[in-house]
């Protein structure tokens, strides 16, 4: 009788029986090939719950909207999910075979990333993802696009952008934790395309998406890959993601 909203699943490693795994609300499935959702592991679900323990009662994402989650915890657990997103995002960059010789004189046939990258954050909330990218890609270049959603109409407005001059030659990791109507992300991609970045070289890293935002985006940019941690149920009358987590920027920076 627990209050799940959305699809549920027994969560845990395959070697455990169904009865040994707690049930949690998991990401809504989407039909677009270009959208990658992080595996719905106990760790991810617990992080989205923003609770430290993974007991039967804590499992699920009831607490993701908990207004009592303190800012320090919100930042800490968001950062851990952002790290997972960045690590998964890097799997979608081009790679080539590369062999090295080990200190004992043997060869190891491995892989190497190919091509230049840069991050582009949609300010303000997207800036919260920059550190996670820097932690994985040392001295990565970062561009900024300031887009703000009108609080009444939810329409995005572009205020400012500052991007690396050679951005057209780079793979772009576009960063924004919240993907509601998709309006802000679509506007950011239009800016990138106007600077010569082809959509197939943009990777959008996102923490929580709505099915509406994903649908709008994937229809407009069928070659652009999205990596998201979780697709929620939908949007409310103010175009906030539900169940969602409220205003990410406020919770990360000011609340
Ligand atoms: C939030 C969020 C996205 C946008 C998502 O930013 O970070 O950029 O809204 O909504 P959409 O998909 O409907 O466009 P907001 O404009 O509230 O600014 P903030 O980053 O300063 O919080
Ligand atoms: N921006 C947010 O921070 N949260 C939402 O749910 C929608 C837009």
From TrEMBL:
One of its GO terms (molecular function) is uracil phosphoribosyltransferase activity. Pathway: Pyrimidine metabolism; UMP biosynthesis via salvage pathway; UMP from uracil: step 1/1. Residues 63-253 form the Phosphoribosyltransferase domain. It is an enzyme of class 2 (transferase). Keywords: Allosteric enzyme, Glycosyltransferase, GTP-binding, Nucleotide-binding, Transferase. It comes from the Eukaryota. Signal peptide: none annotated. Residues 1-18 are annotated as: Disordered. Its EC number is 2.4.2.9. GO terms for biological process: pyrimidine-containing compound salvage. SUPFAM superfamilies: PRTase-like. CDD domains: PRTases_typeI (cd06223). Its cofactor is Mg(2+). Belongs to the UPRTase family. This is uracil phosphoribosyltransferase. It comes from Xylaria grammica.
